[in-house]
Sequence to fold (225 residues):
Amino acid sequence: MKSARTIAIDGPAASGKTTVAQRVAKHLGYLFFDTGVMYRAVTLAALRRGVSVEDESAVVALAESISVDVRPPSFPDGRLYDVIANGEDVTWAIRAEEVDRHVSRVSAYAGVRTAMTRQQRDVGLRGDVVMVGRDIGTVVLPEADLKLFLVASVDERALRRHRELAERGQSAELQAIRSAMAARDEYDSSRAVAPLKAAPDAVILDTTELTVEQVLQRVLALAEA
Fold:
């Protein structure tokens, strides 16, 4: 009998949280929910409506006015979930290159995070969900049945990202990736709004020397305990 109906997985970039969360959700038959898609939906809406992403007050007002929902996938087209914004399926539209360029700025606005946190909680509180991000266990869903915080050394995470880019046919210097990742860690950990940190009752898993399968088995054991 599965006891954990809400699972929160946080951690820095390339710690393995997204890959593991996807596999855990598939194994348990749960919704996989990458909370970052909500910020992408807001960014897409701003771009479509001609709202400057530099205009914080306008972007926040937009975030407060739109409804974003995440549901189990409804089409067999490779999607992991449906992203619905104001009734429109934007699952693939939020992956546009223009959205990629601006989502970091939009997601950094405190008002946007507040608006999206409310909607993220609505999805999480339905249960049977694996939520992944950087502040799920501390801010979005602190009452989650199981909270995990995945970590790995910055060298290992840089190697993982380097391999990932190579598999996509993209070239990048390993040292440059490492430097950018270390800078992102510092920013995420020290930001005033929803900083990256483990919840007091989170289980911390160091994935540096573990395979995805090993991490998966440890998480499933915790979820099904």
User: Anything to note?
Assistant: The first helix runs from residue 17 to 28. The mean pLDDT is 93.
